[in-house]
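Late entry, evening session. Most of the bench is empty. Finally got around to the prediction I had been postponing all week. Sequence below, unchanged from the version circulated by S.P.
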Amino acid sequence: MLKTLKMMFALRKAYKSNSILYVLRQLPLIKKILPTALSQSKVLNVIVTIIFAIWEIGAIFIGKIIYYFGAIGYLRTLSDNLSNEVLFCQSLLLLTAIGLFMNVSFLDYRKDKVYAINIFKLNAKEYTIIDFGYSLVKIIVGTLPIAIFMGLAWGLPLWFLIAIPFCVAFGKFIYASYVLSTYERTGVVTYAGKSLLSWFGAIALGFAAFLMPVFEYGLPKEICMAGLLLLIPVGLICSVKVFTYKNYLKINKSMLSQMDIVMKKARKRQDNQVADSISADAIETSNKKGFEFFNELFVKRHKKLLWKPAINLTIVMLAMAVIANVLFAFLGGREICARIIDQMIPYFSFVVFTLNRGGAYTKALFLNCDHSMLTFSFYKKRNNVLKLFVIRLREIVKVNLLPAFAMGLLLAFLVYLPGDPEALKKSLLVLFVIMAESILFSVHYLVLYYLLQPYNVNTEVRSVPYMIAFGASYILIYILMFQRIPLETFGFSCLGFCAVYTVIASLLIYRFAPQTFKLKN
């Protein structure tokens, strides 16, 4: 058992250290000072080990901080009448229930696990149980201080706060035993958060966690506490199945082969998605000339990829607006709904970012256009680069503005529900903000594509700076979701930032794109 534990940490450290070294090798300034033989540098290995340790420790606490202070803290702002104790226990119960079948690190696929079982032939049962136990220890260590700090401030008893991380950890055994039992019956490994039923359940519980404080409805504190504490004995019973199960080698091999098939299908589907969406209509042409002709032909041939999802999303948004109009006409609650949407506008920045078609557009550009055209020198000249950037920006903005306008209308309608002049002003501002964000994210995707061109000759994303920039954007917008910013302040700031960012982006493209927009090995 101890040998397996040491090997597990050694493999995990080796795999993550190699990933860290790869990232360092891709960073523009750092890669120049790194030694050629990275693995032979003792100083660099020490630095990488420190980074690995910081990463492991940070991962234990950062997620829990976001979970408690972000999610539960945000739900606190939605209610004026519910007590802190009721809201804390209620939110924790519902969110923990979601995590029990959506976030369980049991038989999950990782590269170090492939090496451990298939190459180093470690004992599959020992490795699986130790790996699962390590994930539970991280839950307990990360949750305990944060739950105590937040819970005491909200008036919860200390004994219950100490029990919370153990409730969550033991609750994970419930899903683990379900996975093993299901495999015995069907021969298929069930993954946390993969089934359609689990997603429906998570969405339903998520809506309950959100709407209950909005409508000032709270479950009795004692029932919520009892529900959480019940996870400990139930988890202990289910842990018997986990510790006594014998066919861990078989189920791990099934899991690994199952995931290999899924990943191969995903890669094949991703490679074929753009190609299948191209129109083969030979009569498609254009009366324009130069880059305008070049771009219009591209857009016409890729209308299935670009415009079809945008139109479908627009139809969905308009249908939701009609349904909301009918519901509130009969059920009432206009003022409550308007107040909620007014407070949640920063949240929809994340929705607009997620639904933006910029990623699909830039991949199609590279795969079916720039991959070949970047071999010609005229294509990378400064004036041509800027001219084509402006043309392409115009096209992707048009594609994204259609669903953004529909979403803006939906939210503007919900904000206008009270019907007073102030609500009209806010609704118009919401409409303009959603459209401005759509433009902003369209610019952002295209700027990252031109300045950090992420694809290699095999159309794989291999640019670490691109991944860092995109990840940082995602994190910033995610954090923005939980900010309570007045609508007027957020709206006008967003409009101003969109204008400034677009101008700066154009200058950056003109200055740097001729050097950065190129094929990579």
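Two things to note before I forget:
The mean pLDDT is 81.
Residues 42-76 form the longest helix (35 residues).
Will write this up properly tomorrow.
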